[in-house]
Structure formats: C-alpha cells, structure tokens
Amino acid sequence: MIVLALGIGFLLGLLAYRVTEVRRNAGLRVYYSDLNGDGRHDEAYSYEHGTIVWHTMDRNFDGNWDVWYEYRRGQIYTEQGDENFDGKADFWVVARSL
Ligand SMILES: [Ca+2]
Ligand SMILES: [Ca+2]
Q1: Which ligand has its closest atom nearest to the C-alpha of 40?
Q2: Alpha-carbon span 94 to 14, nearest angstrom
Q3: CA 82, CA 98: separation in Å to the nearest integer?
Q4: Among 52, 46, 51, 42, which residue's Cα sits nearest to residue 25?
Q5: Tens-digit pLDDT profile for residues 16-46
Q6: Ligand 1 mean position to 82 CA, how many Å?
Q7: Torsion sign over Cα 48, 57, 44, 16
Q8: d(CA 96, CA 76)
Q9: Which of the chain's termini has less CB crowding within 10 Å, N or C?
Q10: pLDDT digit string (tens) for 48-93?
Q11: Which residues are near ligand 1, the ion (C-beta closer than 5 Å)?
C-alpha cells in the first residue's frame, strides 16, 4: 500500500512539474519540463541512482539554462546564476558545510 501511495505521489509530482521528457542512461535519469508550454525544456532535474544531483532552469525562456543547482547527498551544494542572460554565471554560492 505504501509503495502504491508513493508511486501515485511520484506520478502526481511529475504532472505538477509538467515533465515532458525523461532521459535515462545507466544510473542517471533526467526529467525535463516545459514550464511555459512553448514546446522547449525550461527545467531539468538529474537523478543518479534515485538521488538528485543537478537541477537547472531557463528562467527567461530563451532556450539557455541560466541557473544551476548542484546537489550533494540530496541537498543543494552549489548554486550558479546568470543574471544578465549572457551565458556566463554571475554568481556562485557554495554551501558552508555538507
Ligand atoms: Ca518552454
Ligand atoms: Ca535563459
């Protein structure tokens, strides 16, 4: 019963994030979402053996990622952001300890 509930919760989560494509390669899975419905991916979550390792977003919907989160042990370790959308990170925040 718990497994069924978790499975349903996972599927509802996918719908809530408008997952449009899932790519698998060995232990890596990447879930892509189209947040504004224009047919292009705007957000991606990468999982390695079921644990999140990357999350990236295209906040201005220009087709280029502009914020990147790196996870370690399931928690955000670094955040990089491209605030002026020139393709280069303008800030980089590293977690104090993990
Ligand atoms: Ca889009
Ligand atoms: Ca962008």
Answers
A1: 1
A2: 28
A3: 24
A4: 46
A5: 568 999 999 999 999 999 999 999 999 999 9
A6: 18
A7: positive
A8: 11
A9: N
A10: 999 999 999 999 999 999 999 999 999 999 999 999 999 999 999 9
A11: 34, 36, 38, 40, 42
What letter would DSSP give residue 18? Answer: T
Distance from residue 36's CA to the centre of ligand 2 (Å)? 13
Assigned token pair, 58: 């295209």
Ligand 1 geometric centre to CA of 41 (Å): 5
Helix (H), strand (E) at residue 56: strand 51-57
Tokens 């509930």, located at residue: 5
Distance 87 CA to ligand 1 centre (A): 18
Query: Which ligand lies nearest to the CA atom of residue 38 in the structure?
Result: 1
Please, which contacts does 12-21 make with residues 24 or more away whose CB atoms are closer than 8 Å?
17/43, 17/45
How far does the centroid of ligand 2 lie from the alpha carbon of residue 41, in Å?
11
